[in-house]
């Protein structure tokens, strides 16, 4: 502070005492000094200099010890004015003279330049006129001096331009030097402001020695630098006048010259040095130069804060100056002692209009300034502060970075992040049956979660984190540590209106992630099957590294297609790969048995060494009987170490060491029994819970630890098993020595490991000798022999017989041999009218009711047809497919369907009963109801209106009994190896006849739903609550409803075990291979291929069927028998692997019921009691004999089907569940088949 009273009362200025000494006093010392000066001036305002000197001397002597102790010792060598004169006007005059003097010079220069330009312009016109009048005679003489003058001006302009450009580069941020200079100037300005804050605790004006004051020296150095920088800016400025008036220039005018005056006068004046705070306005520019601020919100926030703070500090500096100095016209008598920070406080309460009154302005200048500042400050406070708060509040709450935890993996989940998708994912991923899931889930989405989703994240805060960002931004990928993530999962919006656009978005996400880190494992959901091909174009997409695309349309329609072959299979498979908790029900209801099966899931585990050398059926039976586990497949490693998944491969295949098995069990702990089992220690144990790790097992683990550690990074135990690179060369050698002699060694398949076989030499006589004996057509009679091995295989007929059975001129299958194929047909050739459809007498067919129009999104009907045209069916076993729907929509789908045989179209609508009667819907094996218009409706409750109306329409239809009676499918199929023509071996003793279907309720229907809650409208006789989960509802349990939401569980199931997805694809797609997918991606159609031993061998793969117990070879077990006995008998005798039951809903009731609805029971226990009406889900081997009688026929055509049907009907295998409810005479069936063949 300044010595306010001393300036006008004759006392020592600035506290200078006798002898002219100069002190730097603190504010509290100066306050006491002010009181003495005020009393002296009030007693005698015109006292002499001697009395003033003595008064000042006495005052100094009082405070001299404190001043010495606190700040700077008094020195008598400071040459300062002893008369107490104030010199503030000298400091202010230096700034004003500099500013106005420079402004005057600039304006004078502009005026002179303007006058010179006007004069030159006039002279130039006169010279031009003279040139025109004088002609060209004087041109040579007059131009020479003009040219010389122009060259000199050009040289001068060039030099000035170069200097100007150099100065512009130096002060700009375009170069490294410019950025360093700009940042340095800003830093020094902040340093000068800090020095002002320090000096503000001293008097406003005081005597200082430049050579001994350290802060003054630093401030002088800073201002010299500012002066040089000002010169550069002046040179680089295009408009000098505007440069002179800009804020930074004004700051320099009022801060730089006073420093030089201070050195000259040995005097310091705080003055207008607070203007350095205005440099804070450039803070955002500096941060942008340093690449710290990148987003618009952050730049705007820093701009607002810097303007607000700089204005605040600058105004506080002015109030500090005038309040501590006083008004000049009051002879500086009305000053008050305020510190700078008190002024900062005063300005804040003034801007906020609070005004406590504890600190206020006393001087006229201060009050006048406050009047104007309130107007501007209040406006700024009212506009800036809310905007600042809004920007801070809108800053990403989830904008941090993920910190990886040592020893714990993490995955990144992105894509369609909503409450529904996240809750479904977490419910399955973190299910307790998965054992200990030591994986952290990191969600990345560009929209902040709503309150419900945020609450969900908080409930799982120990394993879930959310970050706001986009996977398309590499910075956000770095924030979630994508390079160290175990996998990245991309969720799709299943209910979007444009599936292709959604797939394109997910493909772009894959490209971005793979571009950032090519080695990351990605599992993505795709909506459309044809969009999977685009993933193959990504160079770093590699299925060997675990990359997978889960195509929802492919799997959804594949599940529905399998239900056409074995009704209820879609429900069973959906429950197997979904994690469901066990719900115990005491009452003896159908829900009790259904829920016991629902608690089963698919797991993987390595098989114990005790199983090495045993055949697959033997191990399967041992696991089921002793370990209470159901093994349905294994991962087989060939001699070249290629691994693939074999589903129920038969008894010709022996278990290798380290084989991975696929099990159906209720939790992961049960599956460990297969790994711990030891024949020496556990052979006599009857309770499977007692099977624990034994000493033998520990020794075996030590023995095989070497080859297990080779691929430690990719091995996942239990449900974590990856299984792609697990075993060592030891296994390879063992596999070659043990299996190279088998007659059917499964060869390498493409990435998805489909089942394929190739014939090789047979050199093991022990178990395979019967095969050689049966090769020339003998009847299979060994009950323990595999029907897969003991068959009449045309591929194994030696010599010309094999060639005769393969017509090389006919293409019956596609190029991979996995599907039936025919030449492309025009859609007009397969269109039926109502009368034509009625004359066809369709029976045992599949009716597909499709809702769609010319603008509907394609659902990919090819995925529905392909499983129904798998080559492991004989041609006469293929079910005719009739599409009922809009011809405009079906024309758009036809390009993908024109290569499949036995496909017809009835233009119409599924809501028309006339169309439904024309296709004999009461005689169909399955009616599928689909809609392509579901996602175009915003109201979720109305999305399924068409499918629900069609389903209710069919169920309400009534039919007469004019067609006659038909043998029901509950008579049971004849298992491979049993000859129905022989009375001794015939499984059926008397054909069961039942009346035909007379009501639509008994028609087998499967309806696709989008909204799970709409399932309540399908069955009017159920009591399902609207809030009941889909899998607990009666339509889903009965296999009559399917929703795409059940496929959400595949994401987590695939992450923990990528073989699960391969297994599911193998079961539901009919055997689609990556070669076929690449071909479809290339041509968008199946390509026909000639029959070769290699392609025909691909037909030899398992398929799902339903075994009836009402009659046939297992009829004795159907009435009160045990499921375990049936399981063992079917496995030993026919190599059929049973895995579930399709039972009538009211079969547990003691009184007969007319209800024909059935429900699914998955993996019942051994002692489960069977009833005669049960249908058994089983995996059956490919039956070569079913088509053997066709071997002598020409393969150039599929005509004359009725004769081949009669010769092979003894081995035909009905695959659906309700054929017992749809009787029809054999004659009418043969007639219908004949008419169909003629039409095709």
Automatic annotation (TrEMBL):
Transmembrane segments: 87-109, 180-198, 218-236, 301-322, 337-356, 368-386
Domain RCK N-terminal: 408-550, 843-987
Compartments, as annotated in UniProt: Cell membrane
Cellular component terms (Gene Ontology): monoatomic ion channel complex; postsynaptic membrane
Keywords of the record: Calcium, Cell membrane, Ion channel, Ion transport, Lipoprotein, Magnesium, Membrane, Metal-binding, Palmitate, Phosphoprotein, Potassium, Potassium channel, Potassium transport, Transmembrane, Transmembrane helix, Transport, Voltage-gated channel
Biased composition (Low complexity): 39-61, 1190-1215
Molecular functions (GO terms): large conductance calcium-activated potassium channel activity; metal ion binding; voltage-gated potassium channel activity
UniProt keyword annotation of Hydrolase present: no
Residue stretches of biased makeup (Gly residues): 1-21
GO biological process per UniProt: regulation of membrane potential; vasodilation
Compositionally biased tracts (Basic and acidic residues): 1224-1240
A family per Pfam: BK_channel_a
Keyword Heme included in the entry's annotation: no
Superkingdom field: Eukaryota
InterPro entries: Ion_trans_dom (IPR005821), K_chnl_BK_asu (IPR003929), K_chnl_Slo-like (IPR047871), NAD(P)-bd_dom_sf (IPR036291), RCK_N (IPR003148), Slowpoke-like_C (IPR048735)
SUPFAM superfamilies reported for this sequence: NAD(P)-binding Rossmann-fold domains, Voltage-gated potassium channels
Record's bilayer topology term: Multi-pass membrane protein
Disordered: region residues: 1-62, 755-792, 1190-1240
Catalysis: reaction(s): K(+)(in) = K(+)(out)
PANTHER family: CALCIUM-ACTIVATED POTASSIUM CHANNEL ALPHA CHAIN (PTHR10027), CALCIUM-ACTIVATED POTASSIUM CHANNEL SUBUNIT ALPHA-1 (PTHR10027:SF28)
Membership in a protein family: Belongs to the potassium channel family. Calcium-activated (TC 1.A.1.3) subfamily. KCa1.1/KCNMA1 sub-subfamily.
Protein name (database record): Calcium-activated potassium channel subunit alpha-1
Gene this protein is translated from: KCNMA1
């Amino acid at each position: 502070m300044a010595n306010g009273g001393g300036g006008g009362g004759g006392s020592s200025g600035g506290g200078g005492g006798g002898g002219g000494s100069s002190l730097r006093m603190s504010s509290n010392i100066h306050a006491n000094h002010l009181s003495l000066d005020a009393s002296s001036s009030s007693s005698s305002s015109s006292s002499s200099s001697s009395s003033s000197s003595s008064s000042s001397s006495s005052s100094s002597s009082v405070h001299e010890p404190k001043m010495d102790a606190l700040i700077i010792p008094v020195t008598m060598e400071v040459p300062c004015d002893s008369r107490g004169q104030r010199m503030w006007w000298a400091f202010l005059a230096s700034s004003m003279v500099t500013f106005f003097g420079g402004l005057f010079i600039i304006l004078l220069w502009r005026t002179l330049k303007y006058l010179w330009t006007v004069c030159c312009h006039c002279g130039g016109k006169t010279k031009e006129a003279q040139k025109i009048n004088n002609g060209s005679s004087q041109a040579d003489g007059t131009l020479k001096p003009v040219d010389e003058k122009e060259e000199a001006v050009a040289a001068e302009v060039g030099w000035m331009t170069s200097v100007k450009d150099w100065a512009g580069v130096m002060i700009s941020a375009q170069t490294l030097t410019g950025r360093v200079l700009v940042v340095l100037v800003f830093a020094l300005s902040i340093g000068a402001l800090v020095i002002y804050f320090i000096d503000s605790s001293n008097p406003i004006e005081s005597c200082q020695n430049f050579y001994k004051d350290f802060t003054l020296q630093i401030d002088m150095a800073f201002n010299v630098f500012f002066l040089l920088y000002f010169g550069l800016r002046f040179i680089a400025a295009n408009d000098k006048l505007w440069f002179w008036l800009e804020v930074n220039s004004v700051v320099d005018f009022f801060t730089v010259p006073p420093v030089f005056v201070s050195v000259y006068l040995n005097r310091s004046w705080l003055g207008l040095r607070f203007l350095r705070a205005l440099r804070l306005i450039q803070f955002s520019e500096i941060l942008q130069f340093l690449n710290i601020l990148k987003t618009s919100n952050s730049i705007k926030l820093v701009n607002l804060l810097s303007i607000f703070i700089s204005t605040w500090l600058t105004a506080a500096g002015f109030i500090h100056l005038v309040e501590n100095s006083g008004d000049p016209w009051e002879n500086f008598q009305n000053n008050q002692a305020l510190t700078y920070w008190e002024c900062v406080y005063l300005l804040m309460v003034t801007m906020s209009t609070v005004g406590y009154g504890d600190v206020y302005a006393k001087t006229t200048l201060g009050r006048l300034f406050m009047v104007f500042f309130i107007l501007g400050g209040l406006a700024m406070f009212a506009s800036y502060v809310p905007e600042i708060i809004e920007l801070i509040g809108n800053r990403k709450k989830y904008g941090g970075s993920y910190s990886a935890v040592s020893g714990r993996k993490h995955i990144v989940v992105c894509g369609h992040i909503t409450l529904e998708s996240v809750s479904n994912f977490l419910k399955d991923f973190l299910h307790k049956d998965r054992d200990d899931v030591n994986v952290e889930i990191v969600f990345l989405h560009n929209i902040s979660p709503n309150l419900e989703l945020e609450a969900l994240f908080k409930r799982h805060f120990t394993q879930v984190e959310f970050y706001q960002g986009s996977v398309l931004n590499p910075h956000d990928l770095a924030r979630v540590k994508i390079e160290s993530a175990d996998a990245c999962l991309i969720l799709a919006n299943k209910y979007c209106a444009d599936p292709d656009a959604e797939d394109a978005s997910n493909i772009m996400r894959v490209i971005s992630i793979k571009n950032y880190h090519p080695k990351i494992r990605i599992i993505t959901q795709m909506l459309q099957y044809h969009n999977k091909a685009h993933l193959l174009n990504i160079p770093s997409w590699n299925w060997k590294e675990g990359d997978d695309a889960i195509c929802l349309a492919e799997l959804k329609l594949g599940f529905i297609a399998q239900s056409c072959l074995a009704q209820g299979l879609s429900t069973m498979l959906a429950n197997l790969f979904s994690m469901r908790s066990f719900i115990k029900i005491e009452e003896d209801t159908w829900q009790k048995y259904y829920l016991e099966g629902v608690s089963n899931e698919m797991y993987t585990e390595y098989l114990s060494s005790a199983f090495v050398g045993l055949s697959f059926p033997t191990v399967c039976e041992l696991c089921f009987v002793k370990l209470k586990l159901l093994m349905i497949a294994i991962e087989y490693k060939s001699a070249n170490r290629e691994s693939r998944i074999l589903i129920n491969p038969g008894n010709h295949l022996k278990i290798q060491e380290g084989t991975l098995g696929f099990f159906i069990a209720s939790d992961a702990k049960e599956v460990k029994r297969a790994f711990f089992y030891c024949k020496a220690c556990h052979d006599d144990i009857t309770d499977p819970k007692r099977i624990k790790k034994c000493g033998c097992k520990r020794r075996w683990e030590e023995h095989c630890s070497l080859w297990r550690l080779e691929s430690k990074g990719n091995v996942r135990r239990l449900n974590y098993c990856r299984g792609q690179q697990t075993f060592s060369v030891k296994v390879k050698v063992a596999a070659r020595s043990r299996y190279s002699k088998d007659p059917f060694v499964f060869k390498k398949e493409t990435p998805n490991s489909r089942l394929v076989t190739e014939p090789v030499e047979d050199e093991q006589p022990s178990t395979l000798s019967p095969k050689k004996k049966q090769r020339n057509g003998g009847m299979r009679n060994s009950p323990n022999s595999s029907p897969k091995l003991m068959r009449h295989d045309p591929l194994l007929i030696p010599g010309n017989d094999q060639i005769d059975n393969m017509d090389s001129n006919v293409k019956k299958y596609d190029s991979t041999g996995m599907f039936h194929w025919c030449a492309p047909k025009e859609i007009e050739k397969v269109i039926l009218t109502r009368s034509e459809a009625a004359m066809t007498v369709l029976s045992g067919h599949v009716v597909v009711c499709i809702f769609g129009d010319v603008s509907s999104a394609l659902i990919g009907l090819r995925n529905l047809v392909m499983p129904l045209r798998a080559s492991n069916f004989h041609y006469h076993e293929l079910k005719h497919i009739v599409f009922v729907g809009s011809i405009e929509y079906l024309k758009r789908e036809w390009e993908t369907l024109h290569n499949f045989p036995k496909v017809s179209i009835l233009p119409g609508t599924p809501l028309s009963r006339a169309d439904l009667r024309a296709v004999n819907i009461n005689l169909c094996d399955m009616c599928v109801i689909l809609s392509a218009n579901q996602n175009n409706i915003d109201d979720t409750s109305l999305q399924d209106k068409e499918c629900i109306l069609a389903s209710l329409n069919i169920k309400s239809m009534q039919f007469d009994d004019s067609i006659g009676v038909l043998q029901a499918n509950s008579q049971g199929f004849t298992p491979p190896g049993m000859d129905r023509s022989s009375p001794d071996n015939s499984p059926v003793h008397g054909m069961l006849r039942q009346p035909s279907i007379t009501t639509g309720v008994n028609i087998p229907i499967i309806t696709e739903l989008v909204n799970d809650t709409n399932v309540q409208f399908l069955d009017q006789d159920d009591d399902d609550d609207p809030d009941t989960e889909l899998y607990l509802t009666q339509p889903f349990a009965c296999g009559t409803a399917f929703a795409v939401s059940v496929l959400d569980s595949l994401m987590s199931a695939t992450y923990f075990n990528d073989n699960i997805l391969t297994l599911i694809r193998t079961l539901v797609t009919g055997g689609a291979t990556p070669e076929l997918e690449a071909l479809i991606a290339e041509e968008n159609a199946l390509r026909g291929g000639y029959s070769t031993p290699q392609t025909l061998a691909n037909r030899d793969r398992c398929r799902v069927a339903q075994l009836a117990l009402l009659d046939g070879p297992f009829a004795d077990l159907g009435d009160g028998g045990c499921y375990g006995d049936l399981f063992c008998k079917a496995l030993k005798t026919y190599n059929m692997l049973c895995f579930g039951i399709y039972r009538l809903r009211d079969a547990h009731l003691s009184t007969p019921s007319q209800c024909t609805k059935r429900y699914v029971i998955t993996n019942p226990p051994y002692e489960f009691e069977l009833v005669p009406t049960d249908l058994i889900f089983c995996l059956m081997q490919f039956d070569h004999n079913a088509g053997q009688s066709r071997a002598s026929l020409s393969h150039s055509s599929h005509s004359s089907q009725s004769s081949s049907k009669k010769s092979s009907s003894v081995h035909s295998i009905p695959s659906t569940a309700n054929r017992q409810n749809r009787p029809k005479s054999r004659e009418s069936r043969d007639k219908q088949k004949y008419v169909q063949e003629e039409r095709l």
